[in-house]
Specification:
Elements (H helix, E strand, L loop, with lengths): L3 E3 L2 H13 L4 E6 L5 H13 L2 E6 L9 H6 L4 H10 L4 E3 L3 H5 L17 H4 L3 H16 L3 E5 L3 H13 L5 E5 L22 H17 L5 H15 L1 E9 L15 E9 L2 E8 L2
Parallel strand pairs: 1-4, 2-3, 2-5, 3-4, 5-6
Antiparallel strand pairs: 7-8, 8-9
Helix pairs in contact: 7-8, 9-10
Bound molecules: adenosine monophosphate.
Length: about 280
């Protein structure tokens, strides 16, 4: 079936109401476009539980703390729509900023500390922008479920927290990170990498893998030191953190956490990349 493409709140609401009237489950996959297999895997996950899947493509200005980052963010709408159709996405909502924020006010949200470490420390106001836009998308589209990538684990944890705090009746599903065979996590930003920086970008997933595979032999601090060393020579590391997967607080010993993950953000050339892996 041909995918429906709309820029209008009323039209996407109409399509969703129609689906719901037929008793269909509605799934949402929010994206910023420049789609790759990682995004498509979210649509495929949504399709497993939903009868009608909506993807949104919106490069949300309020979550960018750096104007040139916003301007340089890759955009490829026609190819995106084609890819979404290929994976049986039913509708794509491609609004303007005015349309998304029409008749809405910013809301106050207690992040419960989840916005403090890592991305929160390095991208001022980023998560404030993320929760505003995701709440708006939830209000406009009103899905039964929404899929988010664990690649952006801190974002996923914050969306879960928002949905719990505000009692929003949407099932938030976290989906595994899709990687190249060489380990590089797929990202829209990878296409901005210079050819000579590709090898350096691989160091990120290698460092995470090193931590994941050696955690029984070393303390978190020892592993951080081991993993940081090869990175610092080649890329501009912003943080390498080993943290509790629930509270996202850094841990000193493994016994502090029921589940732990390792997180990295780094600039490779001019391109900022993030990645993380589950340790246990
Ligand atoms: P973005 O367009 O970068 O805002 O990402 C939209 C959604 O796709 C977010 O939920 C991301 O976490 C998810 N995503 C991005 N890259 C990947 C990946 N490599 N594997 C799985 N999900 C991803």
């Amino acid at each position: 079936m041909k995918i429906k493409v709309t820029t209008s709140n009323d039209e996407i609401r109409g399509l969703v109401s129609n689906a719901k009237e037929k008793g269909q489950i509605v799934g949402l996959v929010p994206t910023m476009g420049a789609l790759h297999q990682g995004h498509l895997s979210l649509v495929q996950e949504a399709n497993k539980k939903a009868d009608f899947t909506v993807a949104s493509i919106f490069v949300n200005p309020t979550q960018f703390d750096d104007n040139s980052d916003l301007e340089n963010y890759p955009r490829s709408l026609d190819a995106d729509i084609h890819m979404l159709e290929e994976v049986n996405c039913n509708a794509v909502y491609v609004p303007s900023s005015d349309e998304v924020y029409k008749d809405s006010k910013p809301f106050e949200f207690d992040f419960n500390g989840l916005n403090k470490p890592m991305e929160g420390e390095y991208r001022a106001g980023h998560f404030q922008g993320v929760v505003q836009v995701v709440k708006r998308l939830f209000e406009i589209i009103n899905p039964d479920l929404a899929c988010f990538g664990l690649k952006d684990f801190q974002q996923y944890a914050i969306i879960k927290e928002m949905v719990n705090q505000l009692n929003i009746p949407i099932d938030v599903i976290g989906c595994e990170t899709i990687r190249e065979e060489n380990g590089l996590a797929l990202s829209s930003r990878n296409q901005l990498l210079a050819q000579e920086d590709l090898q350096s970008a691989l160091l990120i997933s290698k460092a995470l893998r090193l931590i994941q595979q050696n955690y029984r032999k070393h303390s978190p601090a020892e592993l951080k030191a081991l993993a940081v060393e090869p990175l610092q020579k080649e890329i501009n590391l912003e943080y390498l953190e080993i943290a509790d997967s629930d509270r996202l607080q850094p841990i000193e010993s493994w016994s502090e956490a029921k589940h732990a993950r390792a997180f990295i953000a780094a600039k490779v050339g001019e391109v900022r990349l993030i990645d993380n892996m589950e340790i246990f």
